[in-house]
Each structure stands twice: as structure tokens, then as C-alpha cells.
Amino acid sequence: MTIAVCPGSFDPVTLGHADVITRAAALFDEVVVAVAVNPAKQGLFTVDERRELLAAALEGVDNVRTDAFEGLVVDYCRAIGAATLVKGLRSSTDFGFEEPMAQMNRHQTGVDSVFLITDPAHSFVSSSLVKEVARGGGDVGAFLHPEVHRRLRERLG
């Protein structure tokens, strides 16, 4: 069985994330969406809330599950028997950031990275931008699953 890990903060999960994860699910037997736990950073949503929102956004994708991890993602991959990381790329800037990490991960542990190009409809969307626009009163509903959008509006008041 091939297991891949899609790591990220997912604060909140966007339709771009959901697209990449759904496409990864078609390539691997199991995809674990691993929410990074960083005690030094306070997210808008808790790790458990992010996992709930991921489950809502990925409903119906049977071979995907969520989990949380702390520390190096490659150590997490080894612990669950995953040999592949899946990352979405929005632009060449993302590739420039991800490529050295992919090389280091492979060198350190043999975990390979697979990059999926984000759907052009979502290529400019990030969780940070969604939160910034939503905080300013802008409508971000086109970039989020309806339940994620509802919870974001609720959280921001």
C-alpha cells in the first residue's frame, strides 16, 4: 500500500488545498493530511478544528485521513510508513522554496516529494490571504468549502 503525506498548517483549508489533496488521493492508496503543530505559533483555528474543517472539505474522498504532527515531517512519514510527501505549487516562487527542502528530505531519509501544480483558479489563494481579506470584510466564499467559510466568518465575528 502506498501512503503519501500532504503536510501543512491548513489555517484554514482552502479549495486549492482540497484540490491538491483530492488529486493526490487519485495517485496513492492512502493520503494522510498532516496538520503541523507549532507551539510557537497561534493559529486562528486549533489543530483539532483544522482537522474537522479538512474532513468537511474532503468529505467523500475515502482514502484520505487527517492527523497532526510535531517536529520534522520526514520523521512523521517514517513513523507511519509513508515514502512520499505531496505539495501543491502555486508558482515558481513556491518551487524555489520547496525544492531545497525536498532535496534535504530525500537526502536525510529517502522520502521523496511529488509536486502538483495548483489549479489556475486557486493559484493566487493562500490561507494567509484569505484570513487577511476576511478580516477586512471581504468575501472569500469562492475560495473555501461552505462549512469552512461559515466557520471562518463565525470565528472572525
UniProtKB/TrEMBL annotation:
Highest taxon above the source species: Bacteria
Name of the protein: Phosphopantetheine adenylyltransferase
Cytidyltransferase-like domain span: 5-132
Function: Reversibly transfers an adenylyl group from ATP to 4'-phosphopantetheine, yielding dephospho-CoA (dPCoA) and pyrophosphate.
Enzyme Commission designation: 2.7.7.3
Organism: Actinomycetospora cinnamomea
Complex and partners: Homohexamer.
UniProt entry keywords in alphabetical sequence: ATP-binding, Coenzyme A biosynthesis, Cytoplasm, Magnesium, Nucleotide-binding, Nucleotidyltransferase, Transferase
The reaction(s) this protein catalyses: (R)-4'-phosphopantetheine + ATP + H(+) = 3'-dephospho-CoA + diphosphate
Compartments, as annotated in UniProt: Cytoplasm
Residues holding ATP: S9, F10, H17, G88, L89, R90, E98, H122, S123, F124, V125, S126, S127, S128
Pfam families (UniProt xref): CTP_transf_like
Any GO MF annotation of the entry: pantetheine-phosphate adenylyltransferase activity
A Gene Ontology biological process term: coenzyme A biosynthetic process
InterPro entries: Cyt_trans-like, PPAT, Rossmann-like_a/b/a_fold
Known cofactor(s): Mg(2+)
PANTHER family in UniProt: PHOSPHOPANTETHEINE ADENYLYLTRANSFERASE
